[in-house]
Amino acid sequence: MTPPETVPKRRIPWGWLLLVVAVSGLAAGRVYFPGEPRAELTTVPEVDTKRVAVTVVPVTTREIVRKASTVGTLYGFEEIPISAKVDGRVMRVLHDNGDRVKPGELLVEMEPTDAQLAVEESQRAYELELARLGLKELPPPGKQINLNELPSVAKAIAEEANALGKLERVQLLRKAISQEEKQERETEVEVARTALLQAKLEAEVHLAAARQRKATLMAAQQRLKDLQIVAPTVTTSDNHPVDFAVAARKVSPGEYLRSMPGESSTLFQLILDRKLKLMASLPERYSRDIKPGLQVELRVDSLPGETVFGQVARVSPLIDRSARTFQIEVHVPNDDRRLFPGSFAKAEVTLKTAAVMTVPAESVIRFAGVSKVFVIRNDVAHEVPVVVGDSLTESRATNAPVWVEVSGKLKPGDSVVRTGQAALAEGVPVRLRVMDGPSTVAQKSERLPGTAAVMPTTTGGR
Fold first, then answer.
1. What are the pLDDT digits (tens) for 5-44?
2. What is the pTM of this model?
3. CA atoms of 339 and 269, how far apart (whole Å)
4. In this structure, are residues 170 and 182 in contact, taking their beta carbons and an 8 Å threshold?
5. For the domain with range 80-110+229-270, which CATH number is right: 2.40.50.100, 3.40.50.970, 2.60.120.10, 2.40.50.140?
């Protein structure tokens, strides 16, 4: 009988077995090598998967500047259209667009021949009336003329006195003269008195005619003067030097100008631009806060990155019924003339400074028109509805944190969730974690319940 074939026993590779044991010990966190001291046990927090990890920041009180934003258009402090006062043909135009002119400076000169002839004619008519009165010039306004000093009246007075003298002599010689002669002398006195009255009346007529002739002469002289069109004289409340900028020229040499109502045209458009006016509208809710004297910050496209300051000068007392807005007028200094009338400007009116509660913008959750934040109390999240106000930043840097004003059942120092609120609801337990990297707000760090001892591994080996 053939004996059964024996299977040889396989030798166990002890080297590989030791390697597997060593790797298993490393994975378990516990490896002991002969002759080496054991390391001390350390504790690390176990991750509580039942709690939501969040970061928090305290509600902070900050000073916030209340501002009302608006837009508007810049206008010249005064914009003056220049028109002709009299008819005539233009001889010369002395200025054009962009020129600077001072008050009283000549702008347009018109043909003066007809006006000069009218002045000459009026002068002769006036002199004729003065000659009838026996005067060289009328007294100035307010001073009365004595009619008795006029030659015609003085002659009538003398004739009256002569008639009275004759009548007195007749009365002394009662019996030496006849009744007829006496009546003749009395008639002469009456005639003299009537002649005196007539002389005074004629003197008043000639005096009135002389005044009328003088007025006609003055009108003719003014018309001659108006043929030279000049820049107007303007006085400002702050006695600021005044000069004009020519914004538009609309007249040419040889053109015939008419001054009739409805036909008069603008020759020049002058503006005062050392100070400008911003005309803007604000919503009705600011009507109680806007007062003259408030500072205004303006920005225009022609000065990128720059802020120009002005001041509220006037506030309209009327609210527009259709737009529910009211008008304000802002005065803007422009001595360097870097701003131009007609420019579009964005403006912010500084209202007041207030201390408000603020939270990071990312802490606010908005849903269905409701804003809320999560506040951590005793490691539990609680919803707090808030009303969001203005935004502010800690600096002008592009990546600066944005904070928002909030009001509600909060108080300064409350811990508000900054990150992790997407997984939160009312009453959800949380665990706090420290944000990686530098932060402008210190995070609260707490030891979590439940720790385990872990033996650290070593880097040495055989």
1. 444 444 555 555 555 545 455 444 444 444 545 544 445 4
2. 0.61
3. 18
4. yes
5. 2.40.50.100
